[in-house]
């Protein structure tokens, strides 16, 4: 009996100790959380109530964040704050606000937040690629080199236009081989667009039936899907979770496999590289790496080669192929608009000659339709996150240096103060009273300012040539046994149409 009483007293003492420790840890954690989220500045933008640890993350649907931001905008205005755990975020909404930030205050918003979830891919302080690299000397050197090299390989020149036209011919042959049967255009369109950028970066074009290339496209889609949702956001703002063994490999398996594929292409180049014969962008980067310490200080290293070419692959493929899939979907849903485009093609180009960029100026309606596809399709709703480069005053608010800034491009492309029918597919947004094309300042599908998309010029060329070439040769119709396709999209970094089938009827 005495033994039982002694054991009971020992257990009681033990549990009392555990309780005290638990209370202490709880108080310490709450105090730590309070100190991390405490704001010492006045005139900070308004926002929803922040909860302990998770901040305002419950206010956001990370599968459709742009829709959540539109709702919060109605309550808090064009500039509001969020808090992802202990990371301060400011969201900018509406054409005037976003333009002021990205164009008139470009350097203030030119930085990027660090992205811990990419560390397992080689991303780090000395290798950040271009798209999500911190603003500074290395980023400027890499961007200048990239733009210069892409121009050397035809960007904005007839040589690249010829390559796009040739690929459009291959795409037409592939579509024609379907012989009017229902098919999903996704893979064929992705293949065509990716071939253009792959030829420029890696000097290699893939046949439409190539299994290796199909795997590359599948891995890239998986890469984008893995960035969507609550968990990737949580891992970015609480990066200590990434130190748990196996977490990055399990959560971001597709990203690792995609970069492994990039490694294969780069190693293939290194084995056959000849400094006297530069075949493509990868060769040019390898040559730059040979310039020693100065080149290394400017960011020319192996990891950056992998990351920069991966950035270019994404910039030169995903947005364009997705936009084209929206374009063909809208032609299915609006056959009267498709008829007008084809009438203009027949009048200006005819049925035999291949379209060229010189035709664009004489085709205002087709040009307006393509721009409206980009506006209404809203392919990159939020762009890439920015970060304030210094402490700033913006529209009466104080935003400290190092604050993550999200530009809600959806709120620009569908700003009710700018567009006549923001929530309808309406090509007349880009036409004047005389039917001539008008460029609108609020047209920002590629973002704007210092961090504008590197692939914009190539994308414009591809959209015009691929779109006009296919509508010159085919009329797209909805298969008789298929329901009307959904006009809304799903979000996975880019906003894509749900899968649909179409028939391509030869003209």
UniProtKB/TrEMBL annotation:
Annotated Gene Ontology cellular component terms: cytoplasm; membrane
Binding residues annotated for heme, in chain numbering: 453
Record flagged with keyword Oxidoreductase: yes
UniProt keywords, alphabetically: Heme, Iron, Membrane, Metal-binding, Monooxygenase, Oxidoreductase, Transmembrane, Transmembrane helix
Transmembrane segments: 12-32
Subcellular location: Membrane
InterPro entries attached to this UniProt entry: Cyt_P450, Cyt_P450_CS, Cyt_P450_E_grp-I, Cyt_P450_E_grp-I_CYP2D-like, Cyt_P450_sf, Cytochrome_P450_fam2
Cofactor(s) needed for function: heme
Protein name, entry field: Cytochrome P450 2D17
Gene: LOC112984474
């Amino acid at each position: 009996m005495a033994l039982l009483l002694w054991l009971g007293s020992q257990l009681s003492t033990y549990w009392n100790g555990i309780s005290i420790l638990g209370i202490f840890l709880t108080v310490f954690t709450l105090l730590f959380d309070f100190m991390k989220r405490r704001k010492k500045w006045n005139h900070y933008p308004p926002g929803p109530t922040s909860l302990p640890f998770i901040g305002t993350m419950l206010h956001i649907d990370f599968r459709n964040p742009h829709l959540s931001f539109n709702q919060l905008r109605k309550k808090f205005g064009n500039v509001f704050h969020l808090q992802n755990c202990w990371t301060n975020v400011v969201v900018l909404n509406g054409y005037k606000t976003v333009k002021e930030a990205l164009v008139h205050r470009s350097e203030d918003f030119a930085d990027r937040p660090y992205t811990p979830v990419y560390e397992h891919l080689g991303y780090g302080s000395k290798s950040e690629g271009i798209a999500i690299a911190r603003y500074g000397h290395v980023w400027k050197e890499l961007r200048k080199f990239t733009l210069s090299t892409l121009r050397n390989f035809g960007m904005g020149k007839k040589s690249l236009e010829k390559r796009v036209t040739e690929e459009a011919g291959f795409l037409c042959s592939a579509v024609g081989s379907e012989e009017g049967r229902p098919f999903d255009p996704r893979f064929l369109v992705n293949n065509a667009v990716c071939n253009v950028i792959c030829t420029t970066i890696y000097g290699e074009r893939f046949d439409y039936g190539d299994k290796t290339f199909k795997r590359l496209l599948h891995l890239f889609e998986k890469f984008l899907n893995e960035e969507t949702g609550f968990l990737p956001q949580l891992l970015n703002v609480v990066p200590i979770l990434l130190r748990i063994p196996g977490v990055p490999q399990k959560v971001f398996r597709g990203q690792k496999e995609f970069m492994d594929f990039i490694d294969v292409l780069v190693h293939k180049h290194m084995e056959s590289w000849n400094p006297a014969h530069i075949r493509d962008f990868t060769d040019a980067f390898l040559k730059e790496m040979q310039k020693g310490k100065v080149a290394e200080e400017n960011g020319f290293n192996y990891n950056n080669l992998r990351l920069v070419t991966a950035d270019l692959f994404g910039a030169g493929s995903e947005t364009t192929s997705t936009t084209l899939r929206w374009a063909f979907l809208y032609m299915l849903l609006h056959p009267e608009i498709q008829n007008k485009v084809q009438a203009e093609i027949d009048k200006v180009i005819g049925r035999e000659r291949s379209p060229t960029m010189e035709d664009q100026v004489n085709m205002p309606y087709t040009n307006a339709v393509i721009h409206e596809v980009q506006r209404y399709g809203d392919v990159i709703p939020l762009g890439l996150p920015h970060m304030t480069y210094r402490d700033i005053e913006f529209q009466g608010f104080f935003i400290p240096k190092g604050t993550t800034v999200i530009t809600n491009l959806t709120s620009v492309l569908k700003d009710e103060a700018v567009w006549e029918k923001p929530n309808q597919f309406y090509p007349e947004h880009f036409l004047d009273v005389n039917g001539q094309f008008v460029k609108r300042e609020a047209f920002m599908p590629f973002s704007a300012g210092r961090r504008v998309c590197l692939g914009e010029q190539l994308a414009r060329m591809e959209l015009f040539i691929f779109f006009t070439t296919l509508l010159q040769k085919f009329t797209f119709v909805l298969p008789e046994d298929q329901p009307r396709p959904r006009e809304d999209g799903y979000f996975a970094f880019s906003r894509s149409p749900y899968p649909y089938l179409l028939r391509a009827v030869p003209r």
